[in-house]
Amino acid sequence: MRIRNIEPEEDAGRLLAMQFQLDLETIYMMLEPGERDDSKEKLESRLRGAVSNGSIILVAETSEKEIIGYIWAERGIPRRIRHSAYIVTGIRKSYRGRGIGTSLFKELEKQAKEKGITRLELTVIKENIPALNLYQKMGYRIEGEKPESLFIEGRFLDEYYMGKLIIKDEPAN
């Protein structure tokens, strides 16, 4: 397994296929199966734009170049929030619990420091205990709650706001 930066032109199709699989494997992603309307071309364009803006997008891939996980840290565009990035991450079900999430977060933090990003933030569904444990292990703190934030499988689910301040001189977790 290898962690590397996204290459929009080469990776868009494989990342999109992986996202479609995640939509089927978990209720904890934003989109339901069939709701994702991205085409390879649309996603490639979004990836290029995000990377050119200073966002960090990393993939975890197998030796066969199958994308099995990703982390997308969307950097703020206005100057007042340029120091921060909002994270979305996902790992294929059959690869969870193997340290891939930890590796993605460590590399993200290393690159964020290099780019002058000092705040990383995300939201997580409160009942997604494995993800919550990972984020807390990586130093993220609960900063607030979003009651009834999402409606999934006939019920409302709450989310936590989580964040981490990183200092350039500190080593990554």
What is shown here, in short?
With 173 residues, the protein is an alpha+beta fold. Helices cover 32% and strands 33% of the residues. It has one domain: 3-Layer(aba) Sandwich (Aminopeptidase), CATH 3.40.630.30.
Number of strands: 7
Going by CATH, what is the homologous superfamily? Gcn5-related N-acetyltransferase (GNAT)
The CATH class designation is Alpha Beta
Which range does the strand content fall in? 25-35%
Oligomer: single chain
Average predicted confidence as pLDDT: 94
Strand order of the largest sheet: 1-2-3-4-5-7-6
H and E order = EHHEEEHEHEE
Estimated structural class: alpha+beta
Counting structural domains, the number is 1
Taking all Cα atoms into account, the compactness measure Rg is 16 Å
Distance between the termini: 20 Å
Task: Note down, in words, how this protein is organized.
The model has no long low-confidence stretch (mean pLDDT 94). It is globular and about 35 Å long. By secondary structure, it is an alpha+beta fold. It has one domain (2-165): Gcn5-related N-acetyltransferase (GNAT) (Aminopeptidase), CATH 3.40.630. It has a 7-stranded mixed beta sheet, sandwiched between helices. Helix 3 links the parallel strand 4 and strand 5 (119-125). The chain contains 4 helices and 7 strands. Helix 1 (8-25) packs across helix 2 (40-52). The two termini are 20 Å apart. The chain has helices at 8-25, 40-52, 100-115, 129-137; strands spanning 2-5, 56-61, 67-75, 84-91, 119-125, 141-152, 155-165.
Keywords, separated by commas or semicolons:
173 residues; alpha+beta; Aminopeptidase; seven-stranded mixed β-sheet; 4 helices; globular
